[in-house]
Amino acid sequence: MKIINAVKKQIFNILKYFFLIFFALVAVVPVVSCVFTAFKTADEYQTTSVITPPSNWLNFDNFVKAFQTANMGRAFLNSLIVMVFVLAVSVIVGTQLAYVLNRFEFLGNKLIRNLFLFASLLPSIAMQVSVYKIMSSLELVNHLYGYIIMMCGTDVISIYIFIQFMENISPSLDESAIIDGASYFQIYWKIIRPLLRPAVVTSCILKGVAVYNEYYCANLYLMDKRIRTISTSLYTFVGPMGSQYNLICAGVLISLFPALVVFILCQKQIYSGITAGAVKG
Amino acid sequence: MKWHKTRKGQQAIVIVCFVTVPLLLLMLFTYIPFGQMVQYSFFKMNYLTPPDKREFVGFKNYIDVFTRDDCFKALKLSAYYCVGALFQLALALFLATILSFKVKGGNVFKGMMFFPYLISGIAIGFIFKFFYTRGFVFDSILQMIGFDLENLPYWLKDQRVNNWSLVATSVWRYFGQNMVLFIGAIMSVDAELYEAASLDGANKLQQFRHIILPSIKTIVTLNVILSITGSLSAFEPPYVITGGGNGTGTYFVIMNEIAHVTQKVGLASAMAVVLLIIIFVCTILQKAFFKYVFRDADSTDESYSAKKARKSRMRLGRKESGR
């Protein structure tokens, strides 16, 4: 009986690792094949199979060439500018809104919450049909600041994360500050804002990744080559260069490198952010 | 005392200050366009038509959505994505369960499966164009395990398989994210319950059925419903990989084309409104469904806590008899 149990356990263990390894490979193989190809010279790419590793792992020519052809230096700068502004605005506006909605009972509180909730149901791609018209009548198309303003306006998830977090900050802190003579602005700035910091970090990482990867609107509103962001700079490889996959793979890898670094450094926050955002949403 | 110095007055000031900007942005980029979209859907117009030249066509655009071949066919494609999404949820739940037990290198596995979620849609497009190209990654792997290239279809061209290929990329991208979500939910289950269960001799399958599943029922149902609305608005895989060619154009791909390429703004708006109505109906059904589930959950919760109490009592009893 004991032997049978031990065998059962062993089989269960083997199956467990088999499935884990299999699906981890499924997740990784498409990217790894890109890594292989990105290090290959044009000749090597033509003659070897795509799943054989490159002969020289230090051949960075493709990366350099991809970086230059797609003007990725400029694109990184643009993406950085967009991210800094969008994150700054959405953190300030989001924490302020969460503070007001969570702490004060006022006419319209429920209405505002519902307006944001309802907005989260509208798929943004469908909305672009008429947002485009507004953007062009406000002359915001083809300007980096126009894109930034639009990206600030379509933010719901982080407001939820803030409101949820606010619920765990005791209102007695506010009250004792009021007794000490603090104004509501001071309470927001000196008590709430510092206490919200973990939520701010979480939402910045999530929102940061989303902004960095956003390409539909970037493609729609930033046509000019000089204001392309990282994700739209990859469009350079569509068309005449469409079959030089060693170059394309290098470009793709450059574009996902920052996301990889952030992921390795902030795994915990990313996971907790995803869980937090989902429970409420 | 002046009005703005009172506590109520101060509150009003801070509320107005902190609410104005977000509401303004919300109006400008969500509700005004929403209103306009509904309005446009009754007109025949493009982006440059001045307001007085727009031609009022009544419900013609809506009739077109259901009678035009491209629009309606596209709506049917979401069935593929729906199947994919359900498979994705089942897979995520399965892997989350495995990972919630003791696993060596669990974090590495988790990280590897989650990472695709952080790759931009356009990069995924390139990765999978490369992956599926004739004789490239996927074909090479299949050949390695014994398939003959002659018998393999063109993954992105052959209309029998190409939609499945695209759905697979979407599953690839999101299953890790779903898994992390489920792991979070499973972890929030009281660890004592597992202990008690294994002391009672419950095997893993029983643990899954009686402990894990009931406690994450809510989040699973929520995700099932979200994935149904999500598959109606499937957009990225076909948009970036095939451009909607060869019968892969989903509803949003067609809508995007109608709006921004052929500039039939009225028709595109009608398409958007139709989809929104479908999504609302789904959401309302979801609310109703949740009410039903929660009514049900109350009774199961009771037996659930009763079970827990029984288990801890039994454990106590065992300890005592051991002494």
UniProtKB/TrEMBL annotation, chain A:
Compartment(s): Cell membrane
Domain of life from the UniProt record: Bacteria
Membrane topology, as annotated: Multi-pass membrane protein
Gene3D superfamilies: MetI-like (1.10.3720.10)
Membrane-spanning intervals of the chain: 17-39, 75-99, 111-132, 144-163, 245-266
Domain ABC transmembrane type-1 positions: 76-266
InterPro entries assigned to the protein according to its UniProt record, in alphabetical order: MetI-like, MetI-like_sf
GO CC annotation terms, alphabetical: plasma membrane
GO aspect biological process, one term: transmembrane transport
Keyword RNA-binding: no
Keywords tagged on the record: Cell membrane, Membrane, Transmembrane, Transmembrane helix, Transport
PROSITE patterns, A to Z: ABC_TM1
Primary subcellular site in the record, as a coarse category: membrane
Family classification: Belongs to the binding-protein-dependent transport system permease family.
Protein name according to UniProt: Carbohydrate ABC transporter permease
UniProtKB/TrEMBL annotation, chain B:
GO CC list: plasma membrane
Gene Ontology terms describing biological process: transmembrane transport
UniProt cross-references to SUPFAM superfamilies, sorted A to Z: MetI-like (SSF161098)
UniProtKB keywords: Cell membrane, Membrane, Transmembrane, Transmembrane helix, Transport
Domain ABC transmembrane type-1: 74-286
Transmembrane segments: 12-34, 78-101, 113-132, 265-285
Gene3D superfamilies hit by this protein: MetI-like
Topology versus the membrane: Multi-pass membrane protein
Localisation: Cell membrane
Compositional bias of kind Basic residues: 307-316
Record carries keyword tRNA-binding: no
Main location: membrane
Region Disordered, annotated ranges: 304-323
Pfam (any one): BPD_transp_1
Keyword Cell membrane: yes
Similarity section: Belongs to the binding-protein-dependent transport system permease family.
Protein name, UniProt field: Sugar ABC transporter permease
